[in-house]
């Protein structure tokens, strides 16, 4: 587009230079014609003056012998002068009409050149807008694709936040909940082991009521304590398995987090691409709408240039001047003979 605008600027500059040269050419042509006419008049005047001198000399020599012929020659001279004056006036009128005709033709040429420049400008715009219109389907698909990608990124953003939430929950379990539960269970196991060690000897007392226990009661309490220890150890193993599962789950979440983070990071770039595509789509749509008016303007210009209706007044004046020139009868050879 910049190149086309630069060409238009160059064409405009060339057109202005061409118009200036034509004006200078017309002025020079007018000056040359005026000088030619002046020289022709001076030449005719000199010839006439020479003829008059020769006639005077001849008349002086033969005045007495050729008085009747002198009178006749004088009459003929008067007639020749009248004829010369009439022909000179005709020549001057023809020059005025031809000059006016040249000026009218120059104005017509200027108007046509202006319309041709406008036509070239419209053709350039037509080409530009046709290219943009041709890109309209591609831009529409591009906008739809970017919208789809943005929708997917939005979903990934929600998943990204969910991963972060899940990661925080897993970290709390791994770093706080499970260690605290394991520590509590270990303390309870240690307490149960200490109680069971106290009950290992005969005559042991109940750890709660300090009552001396029989062997049967002691075995029953030891069995109960053993069951409690086994249950807590099983819970510790369960917590360890749960801890291992959480570690694996956290590792998977970390991998997914990196992948989703890369996709979410593209959001700003996609939004910029979407905005640029929207601008291009709007320009292409506007170009499609403007193309109709450009084609109509080109059709009107072509009609005016073909029919010549761009210079109606000039055409009428040109016809008038041409008719006037045709009505003027001028014979250069006859004029020179006179």
Write structural notes for this entry.
The two termini are 67 Å apart. Helix content is 91%, strand content 0%. It is mainly α.
Task: Furnish the topology, listing elements before pairings.
Layout (H helix, E strand, L loop, with lengths): L1 H61 L4 H68 L1 H63 L16 H51 L1 H41 L4 H16 L4 H6 L1
Helix pairs in contact: 1-2, 2-5, 2-6, 3-4, 3-5
Labels describing this entry:
7 helices, 338 residues, mainly alpha, 91% helix, rod-shaped
**Number of distinct beta strands:** 0
Overall 3D shape: rod-shaped
Q: Helical proportion?
A: over 70%
What structural category do the secondary elements indicate?
mainly alpha
Unreliable stretches (pLDDT < 50, length at least 5) are: none
Which strand-content bin applies to the residues? under 5%
The span between the termini is 67 Å
The protein's oligomeric status is single chain
Q: How would you summarize what this structure contains?
A:
The chain is mainly α. Helix content is 91%, strand content 0%. The protein has helices at residues 2-62, 67-134, 136-198, 215-265, 267-307, 312-327, 332-337.
